[in-house]
Structure formats: C-alpha cells, structure tokens
Amino acid sequence: MSINGRQAVAAVLSRNAPLESLSSETKSASMSKAEREIKTLKIENSKLRQELEDVRSLYQQLVRENSHERFEERRVTLLKSQIIQLERQILLMSEALSSRSETLMEVENALISLLDKCRSVTLLLFGLWTIILSQFGHY
Fold it and tell me: Which residues form a coiled coil (predicted)?
C-alpha cells in the first residue's frame, strides 16, 4: 500500500472517532433515562399514596354510615362504592395506556436515530472500501 493509500485510510478512520465516543453517550443517555424513570415512579408513588388515603377515607365513611342504614340503603352504598372503584380503575388504565404510548414513541425515535447512525456507518465503510479498492487499482 502506498503512502497516499495509508493517508486515505487514516483519514477515513479518523472520521470514525465519533463512533468510539458513542458508548459514553449511551451511558449518559441510560443514566438520564433512569433518572427520568425514577422521577416518574416517585410521582406515581405519591399519587398512589394519595389515592390510598382517599379510599381509606371513603371506607371509613361508609362503615360509619352503614351501621344505621337499612338493607336497601346499604346495597345502594355498596353499588356506589363499586362504581367509584371502577372509575378509578378506568383512570389508572387510561394513564397506563398514555404512558405506554409515550414509551413506544421514545423507542421509535431511538430506533430511527440508530438506523440513521447505521446508515452513516455503512456509507463510511463503503467509502473506505472504495478508497482501498482504488489504491489497488481494482475499482
């Protein structure tokens, strides 16, 4: 291989340097993602604690009221409490679906970014291959 060929290969390889720093970028992205997830989980935990307190309060209220009511009134109260619980479940499921769609969007964006990086690496390797072949006169 001639000196010009070596210089051409060195130039192409020097363009590869950003790919080596990719692992540190990936680590910092993972840390950032973990921190966001921890923050989200803390918020969710706080909401669940508040919801638990609300349910306990409703339960205590129902227990106090039920001691003096007739059977029909107790049945109505039970049905009301079931409706409240079902509404809470619907709300939680809606939030879970929303969260899942956000996560899928993030994954899609990450995959698109990865695809772009793979394409750039492919083009870089093709350019390197072209330079190597041109140096040997086979192209």
Answer: 31-65
Residue 130 has pLDDT above 80, yes or no: yes
Q: Let me know: does 74 contact 66? Beta carbons within 8 Å.
A: yes
Rg (Cα) of the chain, in Å, rounded?
A: 31
Q: What is the mean pLDDT of the chain?
A: 80
Q: Confirm whether 10 is domain-assigned.
A: yes
* 139 contacts 5 by C-beta, under 8 angstroms: no
Residue 9 contacts residue 132 (beta carbons within 8 Å): yes
pTM of the model: 0.38
Span 83-127, pLDDT tens digits? 998 998 999 999 889 888 888 999 999 999 999 999 999 999 999
What does 27-58 look like in DSSP terms, one character per residue?
HHHHHHHHHHHHHHHHHHHHHHHHHHHHHHHH
The torsion angles phi and psi of 64, rounded to 5 degrees, stand at -65, -40
Residue 6 has pLDDT above 90, yes or no: no
Specify if 81 maps to a domain: yes
For residue 139, tell me if it sits in a domain. no
Tokens of residue 25, six digits? 């970028």
